[in-house]
UniProtKB/TrEMBL annotation:
NCBIfam families: exoDNase_III, xth. PANTHER family: EXODEOXYRIBONUCLEASE III. Belongs to the DNA repair enzymes AP/ExoA family. Its cofactor is Mg(2+). The lineage of its organism: Bacteria, Bacillati, Actinomycetota, Actinomycetes, Kitasatosporales. Keywords: Hydrolase, Magnesium, Metal-binding. InterPro entries: AP_endonuc_1, Endo/exonu/phosph_ase_sf, Endo/exonuclease/phosphatase, ExoIII-like. This is Exodeoxyribonuclease III.
Length: 268
């Protein structure tokens, strides 16, 4: 049986994560593809073993705004094609999206803007969502026409349901859990036809959370948010046999405020 293991991880600054355990994690991972978000560095600012780790093919998409955003896709198999951005005049240079084609599967890394309710940052997030939903529809159709599956991995910066964050009652007016954001994520599933592979395998649980604030004792109390998703085409979702959050054993062992989220697909 051929399997494809995909991991998504918001690294919260790759240079910082490098000194906290990211390099060791990458060396130990069994993933075939790793999607990174919030890299916050140009490739030439990274150490050689981070920029071009042995055994990996890399696609870096830094932001034109120095020290912000940035995504990457690392794959053990050389991609058949690489693309940065999704045809957006406003967002293609902001380090928010990159995708690769592997045999039979397109894998993308997404870092959706975080927003802040009632501010221009939220308006930016809404503009991104509007353009990106259109892209998701085109991506699904293009993949289907080519006989391919697709999975969009990353930090979507939205908790979809009450089960996706611990303190949902006090966050109903917070960016990341606004009704209109949650409705947009529903459109990704219902209108664009994607499947949340973690929730499909874990339908009745709280979380599993993938982000915990560094403030207070959020991690120790598991007061987290589930905002890191792998959204796949239905055919690929049917082949997902395992999905889990790689939660650190202790606060001290974390190398990011997010934990990696991993899914395993049986391709036949």
């Amino acid at each position: 049986m051929t399997t494809l293991t995909v991991t998504t991880a918001n690294v919260n600054g790759l240079r910082a994560a490098t000194g906290k355990g990211y390099v060791e994690w990458l060396a130990a991972t069994e993933a075939d593809v790793v999607c990174l978000q919030e890299v916050r560095a140009e490739p030439d600012q990274l150490a050689d073993h981070v920029r071009a780790p042995e055994g990996w093919h890399t696609l870096w998409a830094p932001s034109s705004a120095k020290g912000r955003a940035g995504v990457a896709v690392l794959s053990r198999t050389e991609p058949e094609a690489r693309r940065i951005g999704f045809g957006s005049t406003e967002f293609d240079a902001t380090g928010r999206y990159a995708e690769i084609d592997l045999p039979g599967v397109t894998v993308a890394s997404l870092y959706l803007p975080s927003g802040e309710a009632g501010t221009p940052r939220q308006e930016e997030k809404e503009r991104f969502q509007a353009e990106f939903l259109d892209h998701l529809k085109v991506l699904r159709k293009r993949a289907a026409d080519d006989g391919r599956e697709v999975v969009v991995c990353g930090d979507w910066n939205i908790a979809h349901h009450e089960a996706d964050l611990k303190n949902w009652k006090t966050n109903q007016k917070s960016s990341g859990f606004l009704p209109e954001e949650r409705a947009w994520l529903t459109r990704v599933l219902d209108e664009a036809g994607y499947v949340d592979v973690v929730r499909r395998l874990h339908p009745e649980v709280a979380g599993p959370y993938s982000w915990w604030s560094y403030r207070g004792r959020a991690f120790d109390n598991d007061a987290g948010w589930r905002i890191d998703y792998l959204m796949s085409s239905p055919g690929l979702a049917e082949r997902c046999v395992e999905a889990h959050v790689e939660r650190a054993s202790t606060h001290a062992e974390r190398w990011s405020d997010h934990a990696p989220v991993t899914a395993v697909f049986e391709l036949g």
